[in-house]
């Protein structure tokens, strides 16, 4: 059974999910953020079937999230593009949520540090333009310039 | 074929994906953030098969992300818990990424506004504890208190 496509929903969230809404894909991206570049290294890190990994990497290259580059040894490596690097807030939001609700009593398995100050990064949150942290009820959605009649947010 | 479980990976991202890493689930949550509470309203909004919607709602209630509450008319509604509300950075990070890379030339279909100031919220980003926006190379990962030998970040 094919998954129903969300692209008709004219929703930026749905469009993102079309591309990255697959669990392996986000774990491949996590590994890319940790510096993994080679097919075999992704395969070893994730324990994922080679055909699935291959399909996911092809898709990520097609979407311009990873760049496939030849290496000196005649093979290839996969490197995050700017579009891929821009997914870091997505991954870190999920990671912090998992730290808060899924981690054991010991706490987070991995902590992300601001290199300059040597301190943990701020918890991922929604901010106002002046930097205030906003909770759900302090935000409202309005029609944007790309809204059309059948849009859903 | 069953999806391989990521829970053994001791990774907060993987743990989050175990729970919310399914595309319908995030769209159900999107609708919940937009105020949808009734089964039939979710069904109508998403055009999702009733059995799939039912299974996803059960899971979200089990995970403590939605609360199932009886209503005066003898039916039920589904309301975001605190744990569910804490997913807003995940959804908005995906939405902003989709706005940037997936929206048409007109721009974002929906814009999120800070009610107090009436201005769009800040772009979802990773922040240092002092509020600076951090790019990927300004962040490093270190072992946290919950790290153990076989951990993967």
Kindly estimate the percentage of residues of chain A that lie in beta strands according to DSSP: 15-25%
Order of helices and strands of chain A: HHHHEEHHEEEEE
Structural class of chain A: alpha+beta
CATH topology of the largest domain in chain A: Arc Repressor Mutant, subunit A
In what order do the strands lie side by side in the largest sheet of chain A?
1-2
How would you describe this structure to a colleague?
The structure is a homodimer of 153-residue chains. With 153 residues, the first copy, chain A, is an alpha+beta fold. The first copy, chain A, folds into two domains: 7-81, Arc Repressor Mutant, subunit A; 88-138, no CATH class. Helices cover 39% and strands 17% of the residues of chain A. In chain A, strands 1-2 form a two-stranded antiparallel ribbon. Chain A has a two-stranded antiparallel ribbon with strand order 3-4. The first copy, chain A, is globular, with a radius of gyration of 18 Å. Mean pLDDT of chain A is 86; it is low at 1-8. Chains A and B meet through helix 1, helix 2, helix 6, strand 3 and strand 4 of A and helix 1, helix 2, helix 6, strand 3 and strand 4 of B. Strand 7 (139-143) of chain A pairs antiparallel with strand 3 (110-114) of chain B, so a sheet runs across the interface.
